[in-house]
Amino acid sequence: MTTTYHFEQGPIRPPNEARSLLLRLTRNCPWNRCLFCPVYKKRKFSLRPIDDIKQDIRTVRGILDDITVRSTALGHAGAVTDAVISDIYNDPATSDVYRSVAAWRYFGTGACFLQDADNLVMKTEDLVAVLQYLRETLPLIQRVTTYARSRTIVRKSDAALTRFHQAGLDRIHIGLESGCDAVLKRVQKGVSAEQHIQAGLKVKAAGMQLSEYIMPGLGGQDMWRDHARETARVLNAINPHFIRLRSLRVPDRAPLSDLVKKGEFIPQTDDMLAEELHLLITSLEGITSMVASDHIMNLFETLGGRLPDDKAAMLNVIETYQQLSDHDRLIYRIGRRGGTYRSPEDLKADSATYHKIKNLVTEITLKEGPSGLDPFIAQMADRYI
Predict the structure, then answer these.
(1) Lower Cβ count inside 10 Å, N or C end of the chain?
(2) Cα-trace Rg, the chain
(3) What share of the chain in percent tops pLDDT 70?
(4) DSSP collapsed to 3 states, 16-34
């Protein structure tokens, strides 16, 4: 009979950490005031006891050992093969976290993401102790990453950040969102553009990789130009290892939705967003960052590459969309928000899908009128929040 294993995991992780081992160091967000964010609201932030975190790490170790025994018994010499993973997932006695560890072994990424929103608020000695214990107990781990806020990072000494890296922290994800102070203030981000720059440079100086998340659309229709240009200015000053796009969506549970309903914040349309992205990419100069559009909410999944070499190709993705007819842009938007299309080039690749979406447009228009199309597209996009 399988032993029941449990350890604590938080609600979110970056898209590129989908195949990482997830371990929770803190609960929720110590700031938790950003108007665009629907996560953690009405939840109190807390530091988890160090002993509890270490117990979770030991639990993961126990699960890994148990998986090895299971694999050996099935005749696979400890390897996590298709047959082993199928046996685990079909066993009702295995918990969700057991299966998550098994999936981590199966994919073999060696990556571990530490949750929740800002683990650098922990005391330096405590975080160092956790990182060291993690590396000692789980030698399969090859990369450790975490979220952190710029405001927290600038308060940490350079020596502390270096110690984190030496103890095993390889990469920090920062929600930069915008480099425009007016936008940051309106959405209550609680940080300035200058603090973003300071934090990014401190992370790099400590030897860690830096992943900056930016939010196209966050400037709304009134500040989109300043949002794009100032965000590019901040990124140019930092030159992060990664620039990750995560376009704004405003679900009802996000506080920003109240401003939308009052007419105080008018979201960008997809066509406007394409123009904003074009300005942003055009304004990125003198840096060598890897740009990734690795979120389903983004209008263009294939908008990515290494700067400066792939800049023209990235702009071409946007321009290809902009050069489409009004009707084909509508077809693409529905296909993209439905998860079918990744790039405007996909319109030419599958005529059957194109005609299915075309018929859907006709059906919605006949039933709801032309005004029913945008709410339909928004509803599809909001499923992924």
Answers:
(1) N
(2) 22
(3) 99
(4) HHCCCEEEECEECCCCCCC
pLDDT band at 217 (very low <50, low <70, confident <90, very high): very high
CB distance 129 to 50 below 8 Å: yes
Is this prediction's pTM over 0.70? yes
* Residue that the structure tokens 């976290």 belong to: 97
Alpha-carbon span 9 to 24, nearest angstrom: 5
pLDDT digits (tens, 9 = 90+) for 84-97: 999 999 999 999 99
CA separation (Å) from 152 to 25, 116, 147, 163, 203?
Answer: 16, 14, 11, 16, 11
What was the pLDDT predicted at 384?
A: 66
Q: Which two tokens mark 68?
A: 């090895």
Rounded CA separation 193/179 (Å) = 5
For the chain, give the secondary structure using H, E and C.
CCCCCCCCCCCCCCHHHCCCEEEECEECCCCCCCCCCCCCCCCCCEECCHHHHHHHHHHHHHHHHHHHHHHHHCCCCCCCCHHHHHHHHCCCCCCHHHHHHHHHHHHCCCEEEEECCCHHHCCHHHHHHHHHHHHHHCCCCCEEEEEECHHHHHHCCHHHHHHHHHHCCCEEEEEEECCCHHHHHHCCCCCCHHHHHHHHHHHHHCCCEEEEEECCCCCCCCCHHHHHHHHHHHHHHHCCCEEEECCCCCCCCCCHHHHHHHCCCCCCCHHHHHHHHHHHHHHCCCCCCEEECCCCCCCCCCCCEECCCCHHHHHHHHHHHHCCCHHHHHHHHHHHHCCCCCCCCHHHHCHHHHHHHHHHHHHHHHHHCHHHHHHHHHHHHHCCC
Model confidence at 336: pLDDT above 70: yes
Residue 41, Cβ neighbours under 10 Å: how many?
14
